[in-house]
Amino acid sequence: MTDHTLERYATGPAGLPVVGLDDIREAREVLRGVAIHTPMEESRWLSAFTGGPVHLKAENLQRTGSFKIRGAYLRISRLSEEERANGVVAASAGNHAQGVALAAGLLGIRSTVFMPEGAPIPKENATRGYGADVIFHGRYLEDALARAREFADQTGAVLIHPFDHPDVVCGQGTAGLEILEQAPDVRTVLVPTGGGGLLAGIAIAVKALRPDVRVVGVQAEGAAAYPASLAAGAPVALTSMQTMADGIAVGRPGDLPFAAVRDHVDDMLTVSEDSLSRALLALVERAKLVVEPAGAAAVAAILDAPQAFETPAVAVLSGGNIDPVLLGKVIRQGMAAAGRYLYLRVCIPDLPGGLATLLSEIGDAGANILEVAHERISPSLTLHEVEVGIQMETRGAAHAARLVERLRERGYRLDP
């Protein structure tokens, strides 16, 4: 079936549709009353960290918990009656799934969503709650997307691609218009990036109105398809991915977003799993905002290099749909990465009161002991020693360093 929605767009040199500012403005009118004009607030702790104003664009507070409703609704709203009759199909790890399910439900259209195995349970449940049929297939998004294409061919359902369609890029680009209105003096915009739909849309809108603003994409190190693709001059597929940031775990950039990113985006950065954990923990603690790992990517980039971005800066929080179990794990990892957890192996005399004295020293230093384990057999121990492994909670890296120094001053031998 011919995609008649492409007729509204100009065609670029490579035959790809070209999204422009007027297209995004038109999309905004369609989305009025559907997508929320999400809040933006200055983050005082990030601003103090960078030395200039940093604002958080809270797309985690958007309907369905991410920006995806913007593009999904615009795309589905433009289907013909014939196309609507056959329903829609999508592939997603969760956020696009929810956007498609809600948009289809609002428009009275049947929806089917293919999810990769291991997609977060809350995202699956929410997608079903919005009325979609959910089917699991494959390990990665690309596997689910291939099955969704097969389903579309077999049933006539219209594939709603998560990022590689001009309507989707236009819808996501409406967030860019809001950013410029909410932070008119912005100098840098940082955007979490998977397939590139959000980044492409925001970059097109921002550069059309403010070409002086620096636009930066941020990917997870374990799923960073854009750096190699940009270097090669064309989308290049990753052979494997490993990241907790399922919302941006995309193995190949979309053709349309890639072209827009290549032409309009200034930098593409990557952040580690530890950086994502630290950023997520900081957002919970300091901003009182719950985000998923993908949604914390822009903040992670700022925390990694606070002086690298001209301010005022805007960090887009792209989503907040996180499994509570994963949230607990990420918070613990973030605390460890921030030096809030400390594990020490300490040699003490194997005498009555030896352990109690050590624990008193740690308590007097203000650390909270979480776990204690004895080791009596080790080549490094003398006949009259015992090794104690202690897991504790500290107030941060500086506090942990002072605790270590205190124990050494008291004559304790710490094994690395």
From TrEMBL:
Its cofactor is pyridoxal 5'-phosphate. PROSITE patterns: ACT, DEHYDRATASE_SER_THR. Its EC number is 4.3.1.19. GO terms for molecular function: threonine deaminase activity. Belongs to the serine/threonine dehydratase family. NCBIfam families: ilvA_1Cterm. This is L-threonine dehydratase catabolic TdcB. The gene is ilvA.
